[in-house]
Amino acid sequence: MSYRLGVDVGGTFTDVLLVDEDSGSTWRAKTASTPSDQSVGVLNGIDKVCAEAGIDRAAVAAVLHGTTVATNAILEGKGATVGLVTTQGFRQVLQIARSFVPGGLAGWIIWPKPEPLAALENTVEVPERVGSDGTVISELDEDATRAALRKLRDNGVEALAVSLINAFANDAHERRIAELAAEELPGVEVSLSSVVLPEMREYERALTTVANGYVQPQVARYVANLSAKLTAEGVPAELSILRSDGGLSAAGAAIGAPVTMLLSGPAGGVTGAVWVAEQSGHTELLTFDMGGTSTDVALVQHAQARIGRETKVGDLTVRASAVDVRTVGAGGGSIAHVPELTRALRVGPQSAGAEPGPAAYGKGGNAPTVTDANVVLGYLPTTLAGGEITLDREAARAAVQTVADAMGLPSAEAAAAGIIDIVNENMLGGLRLVSVQQGFDPRDFALVAFGGAGPLHANALGRLTGAWPVIVPPSPGVLCALGDATTSARDESARTVLQKLGDLSDGDLAGIFEELAATASQRLTDQGVVVESTSYSADIRFVGQGNELPVAFELGEDLGARFDAEHERLFSFTLPVDHELVNARATVTGARPTVTPIHLEKGDGDPAAARTGDTRIYVDGEFVDAAVYERLKLRAGDVLTGPAIVVEMDSTTLVLPGHAATTDPSGSLLIRPISTEA
Q1: With a cut of 70, which residues of the chain have pLDDT below it?
Q2: Hey, which residues does 323 pair with through a beta bridge?
């Protein structure tokens, strides 16, 4: 027998899920993350889950990994020193950027403009010019190019990005510069814009190419280190990395295009949430992944996550396909504080992380966190992660009491309730970004809550959004790892077209997309993957417009009509003019692995057999008695009336008064207000 192993490394915990490829059976484990060397936490998790399954490490055939290495390199400013080669006259392309300033009125006064990832002193120009139709106007001056590359070598650049004007139409000059760089800058990784983003708009293309080079050395070191340690520790598995769009990429391909994995970690959670929600019959979803450091939210339609054309990390926005995930600095480790100036309670975005962690962890942390507030309110059991972490209730109370003292509140419970209310509102803001601000009513969706901390806050977020039912999957704390283990290999090919739809015959249009699909399919085939499905999308605009909309469609479908419907939905109008095809894309996907769904034994609706006792919790301003249930003992159809707490190895679920949780045959808990309980 062989096994697939999904691994998700978060800021606080590393989650591991093992899948038997023959039977589809699964085993789960959770262990503390090791920020100084993430591979240590990964190997600890592998040991733990292999012991659970009673197998040797050597039986693991594939390790499928969602990682935040690229993301953290951007957020922490710890990427490589990048050299940028541009066409003569375009040296300031990153400094000029786009004339957009975030924030409200007079935001330009207070907004500190981020420094480009490639410094101006490390940006060089080379004489060459290609027209927008691909015609060579001026040949590349190779002597000047060699001189420019030597300057970058003397500056000590660690990665090289090449982004020439109109290289999306003709990449010959970029490819030649890469050959010269191999001679002048041996050992330095080179990113070409014609490979990273073969699309029009020089600023976005240059920025994305530079971002690729910025994170590439760090990603390469991490992947190589993890691969070497897996081999040394007797895990002869093929390593694959999760892409931002929810697909898998071979380790080598991930190193070559790390900009496609900036949202690697969150994408796995969305994939897992879709798989689990489908088992209970729900396909229209808001996903809510609350971990120790941050919360990631996304919207899913028809069991398909919305894929955006931009990836945003911190102040950086690059053009790369990604699940449309929004991240909020709110997690179990988010620190509550009361600024001296305003005396108003704030929660996050600073986090206690895994080290030292919340005060309740007993690892030296003393700042009040969301986890400490949940402990004070009685929502959390005395141990977490299957006994790996023991909670210190007195330390949590002492930390939260500092907030009560600073605000003049009567008790630690009142301060803790305030912390929870604020962090819930912060997460509500993220959910509104992917729903209301995108033209969707959250009441039309179910809310899937996961992550170690998500189920504690899920019921409250259901009340705030009106999204019912709230779905709490089995083992919600390791759902991202489930997503990693149940996703498929994927690749994408794109090109700029810039033609009116009216000037393209059906055959011409189909030919463009079929050619792109063949290119992407070949790359997957080279990785030993058999292509199972192909999807198509295009960036369309009305002729004369400056911006386009991404539209997914099927070959043979009326592309103009699909665009009109999307434009109408977003802006409430269309125009009686022709459409222009700006960019075309084809995405190919391999087969999805087999995982056996959970089928619970049918019960009689009474969860008494799973009840382990009662506890006192503080909710809605008073102490009440709440029943405590062991989740593994629940049966299909059992109804848990709130207030109730459901405990399991990797997470804890809170059911509020006035609500009830029904155990679905697939193992998920479906929480609804009692008045609408079905």
Answers
A1: 1, 11-12, 100-112, 353-355, 383-389, 676-678
A2: 307
Contact indicator for 8, 481 with CB cutoff of 8 Å: yes
Domains and CATH numbers, the chain: 3-74+220-261 (3.30.420.40), 81-214 (no CATH), 283-331+423-486 (3.30.420.40), 334-419 (no CATH), 490-590 (3.30.1490), 608-676 (no CATH)
Evaluate whether 375 touches 396 at the Cβ level (below 8 Å): yes
Residue 606: how many other CB atoms lie within 10 Å: 12
Nearest CA to 593 among 240, 170, 141?
240
Any idea which residue has 């499928």 for tokens? 64
Asked whether 541 and 503 are in contact (CB, 8 A), the reply is no
Residue count (the chain): 678
Local structure of 645: helix, strand or coil = strand
- For the residues of 446-475, what is the DSSP string, one character each? EEEEESSSHHHHHHHHHHHH---SEEE-SS
Q: Decide: 60 and 508 in contact? Cβ < 8 Å.
A: no
CB 516 within 8 A of CB 494: yes
CA 520/CA 264 separation, integer angstroms? 20
| Parallel/antiparallel/unpaired status of strands 669-673 and 659-663 | antiparallel
The interaxial angle of helices 202-232 and 38-53, nearest 10 deg, is 50
- Nearest alpha carbon to residue 276 among 436, 64, 16, 477: 477
Beta strands in 455-502 (DSSP E): 470-472, 490-500
